[in-house]
Specification:
Rossmann fold, Arc Repressor Mutant, subunit A, 2 domains, five-stranded parallel β-sheet, four-stranded antiparallel β-sheet, 8 helices, 41% helix, elongated, phosphoprotein, Response regulator transcription factor, Sig_transdc_resp-reg_receiver, DNA-binding, OmpR/PhoB-type_DNA-bd
Length: 223
């Protein structure tokens, strides 16, 4: 299992990392909220362990941000704040579980395992949301601010990939491999053409652009 630990207490983070690694998991650590957000955007994790009170960005803001961007990775909040209202705030922000400090490592490990099983056996995600955009994977429909947008099959695939990687720079190579299933460069402007068509459909008539060109890198869907 790949686990992201976002904890500003170095000693606590090291202890978690050591225990989880000994249990056969791969851990990535972040020392503050901003670093944790970047790690969450850049990598794919099975579970995130997030401290609530951190410098630069608190854990609640971090989780609210990744949820708006469409990241549904299970999150276990850790906090010394153990009142009912504190727990409710964490869960309403998008957390899946809440563990109060101090805690026994055995309990933390068990909760991480439970979150992982829940993700593996849970229902398949059928609705993607990124900012004002909504995509229904079953009905094959897309809307922005409630206005339905008519997409061709390839445009739908392209937007689905962009929504699953919202806030991240997506390269042409990634799009060729994941959307077109090309493992070589066909030396055509097929991506530019489809991105241009998609941009005109999801951005035209709205007050701000969501599908942006990242110079020298590729494209980014901005929540």
């Amino acid at each position: 299992m790949r686990i992201l630990i976002v904890e500003d207490d170095l000693e606590a983070a090291e202890a978690m990392d050591r225990g989880l690694t000994e249990g056969g998991h791969a851990c990535v650590r972040a020392a503050d909220g901003e670093e944790g957000l970047k790690a969450a955007r850049d990598g794919e994790f099975d579970v995130m362990i997030v401290d609530r009170m951190m410098p630069k960005m608190d854990g609640v803001t971090l989780v609210e941000t990744i949820r708006r961007e469409g990241d549904q990775t299970p999150v276990l909040f850790l906090s010394a704040l153990g009142e009912i209202n504190d727990r409710v705030t964490g869960l309403q922000a998008g957390g899946d579980d809440y563990l109060v400090k101090p805690y026994a490592f055995a309990e933390l490990s068990a909760r991480v395992q439970a979150l992982s099983r829940r993700r593996e056996t849970g229902s398949v995600q059928t609705l993607l949301r990124v900012g004002e955009l909504e995509m229904d994977l079953i009905g094959r429909s897309v809307c922005r601010q409630g206005k339905e947008i008519d997409l061709q099959p390839r445009e739908f695939q392209l937007l689905e990939f962009m929504m699953r990687h919202a806030g991240q720079s997506v390269t042409r190579t990634m799009l060729l491999e994941k959307v077109w299933e090309y493992h070589f460069d066909p030396q055509t402007n097929v991506i530019d053409v489809h991105v241009s068509r998609l941009r005109s459909k999801i951005d035209k008539g709205f007050d701000r652009a969501m599908l942006l060109t990242v110079r020298g890198a590729g494209y980014r869907l901005e929540p």
